[in-house]
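Records of this kind hold a single protein each, on a pair of labelled lines. Below, a sample record shows both lines together.
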Amino acid sequence: MKYIDRERQKATEIRDKIFRDPGNGLFFGKEREFVLSEPELNLWEGIRQDTKDYFIKNGIVWRSGNGEPTGHLLSSQIACLNHLYPLRQRKDCTDRILQNISNSISETLQLFF
């Protein structure tokens, strides 16, 4: 079994427990069991609306190509957003991360928040 097939199988196995979604969402016009039927559930609830608003405001394109987040459980774009976007909401965390890189950094610019 190829790596991608193993990852799709893992995603399908945890889909019901984590997302409570039956899967079989559309991806490139085909139903697939590793794609959520409610794609926005793929974004963590704490960032969901803020992320969608930010993408609209800044003209950022969703990789799904349909103007909405993808339900694909192996999406790198969604993974990055779920892991990194919360830092955008927490200036104190971002400041600390950058200060650990260089003690000459006092704080991040408000431009990013």
Q: What stands out?
A: The chain has one domain: 3-88. The chain has four helices and two strands.
